[in-house]
């Protein structure tokens, strides 16, 4: 827990509690009808402030932004407090404490709202800057991957006859670089492509055919005639990546199954195999349950690609163990 973040959000709730006391005290004296209306409104607004503090603390708001919201709240109290103090000093009124509390509660809420919008504006600007940087980085990475893969393939042709073993090893590295380039491109395009209606069953049939042709693997498919979801053509990349992983890691005679079912408002697609499974550390990294470090960052782009593409469609990815003894990855997508 970050003490400064806690203190900032707690100050919002504390403001509501402090302002609530004189308002409730006034209501207990039996004021006239208008006083009751103002009192009830003040109570609701003050309770709202108490709740806002808890909500801001629970939300994914950075410490800096939490302090910024608390600062707006403090500014509202100071400015309005100074104004009403001068007014009531100049012309004293009955029940000044009650009126003071109601006015401050309304002003505090208004300034908290301003603070929230200010934080959202700043966050939007930060995201736009990050997106621009990532776009530039993505372009550079893809260019370099493509360039290095071409250089390796050129080198392969020069040594193929004299050293075929080395040539095969270098060619495999070049193919991996080319595949990585394609994966980066798929993620970028998935983010920029508007989801439409896609038939999951038809997509899986295409993936099964690809697996048979490229890896010589027979994939068992259990799916309805059609099952439409909100996605794009890059759903095939995500499913294909899971099948490719299963084919590569499940041994010489892999057993790979794809199961598609309709579950309420979603369609669930599960790819299961009889391989060694996905390491727990890898699953936690991709699921966001473990922090990425220089030593722990996953073994490749494959599972990240699956997660990013599926989440872009409003879906979820779940990792588990299959009845075959290996991994089971379930993709849940909203029905079209």
Automatic annotation (TrEMBL):
Domain Histidine kinase: 140-336
Keyword Transmembrane in record: yes
GO molecular function list: ATP binding; protein histidine kinase activity
A Pfam family matched in the record: HATPase_c
Coiled-coil spans in chain: none
Sequence intervals crossing the membrane: 36-57, 69-90, 96-117
InterPro entries: 2C_sensor_his_kinase, HATPase_C_sf, HATPase_dom, His_kinase_dom, Sig_transdc_His_kin-like_C
Protein name: histidine kinase
UniProtKB keywords: ATP-binding, Kinase, Membrane, Nucleotide-binding, Transferase, Transmembrane, Transmembrane helix
Catalyzed reactions: ATP + protein L-histidine = ADP + protein N-phospho-L-histidine
Taxonomic path: Archaea, Methanobacteriati, Methanobacteriota, Stenosarchaea group, Halobacteria
Record flagged with keyword Protein transport: no
EC number: 2.7.13.3
PANTHER family assigned: SENSOR PROTEIN CREC, SENSOR PROTEIN RSTB
Enzyme class: transferase
Domain of life: Archaea
């Amino acid at each position: 827990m970050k003490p400064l973040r806690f203190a900032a959000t707690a100050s919002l709730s504390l403001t509501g509690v402090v302002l609530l006391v004189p308002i409730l005290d006034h209501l207990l004296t039996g004021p006239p009808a208008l006083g009751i209306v103002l009192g009830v409104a003040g109570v609701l607004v003050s309770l709202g402030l108490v709740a806002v503090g808890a909500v801001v603390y629970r939300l994914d708001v950075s410490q800096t932004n939490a302090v910024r919201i608390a600062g707006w709240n403090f500014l509202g109290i100071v400015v309005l407090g100074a104004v009403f103090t001068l007014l009531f000093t100049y012309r004293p009124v009955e029940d000044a404490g009650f009126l003071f509390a109601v006015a401050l509660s309304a002003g505090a809420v208004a300034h908290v709202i301003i603070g929230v919008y200010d934080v959202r504006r700043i966050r939007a600007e930060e995201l736009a800057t990050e997106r621009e940087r990532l776009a530039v980085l993505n372009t550079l990475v893809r260019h370099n991957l493509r360039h290095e893969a071409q250089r390796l393939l050129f080198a392969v042709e020069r040594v193929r006859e004299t050293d075929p073993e080395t040539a095969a090893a270098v060619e495999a590295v070049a193919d991996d670089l080319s595949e990585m380039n394609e994966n980066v491109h798929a993620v970028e395009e998935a983010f920029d492509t508007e989801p439409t209606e896609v038939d999951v069953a038809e997509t899986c049939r295409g993936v099964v055919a690809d697996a048979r042709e490229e890896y010589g693997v027979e994939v068992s498919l259990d799916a309805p005639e059609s099952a439409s979801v909100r996605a794009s053509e890059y759903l095939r990349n995500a499913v294909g990546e899971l099948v490719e992983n299963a084919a590569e890691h499940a041994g010489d005679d892999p057993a790979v199954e794809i199961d598609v079912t309709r579950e309420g408002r979603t369609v669930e697609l599960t790819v299961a195999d009889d391989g060694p499974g996905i390491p727990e550390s890898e699953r936690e990294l991709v699921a966001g349950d473990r922090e990425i470090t220089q030593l722990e960052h996953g073994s490749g782009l494959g599972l990240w690609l699956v997660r990013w593409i599926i989440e872009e469609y409003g879906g979820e990815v779940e990792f588990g163990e299959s009845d075959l003894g290996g991994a089971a990855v379930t993709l849940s997508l909203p029905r079209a």
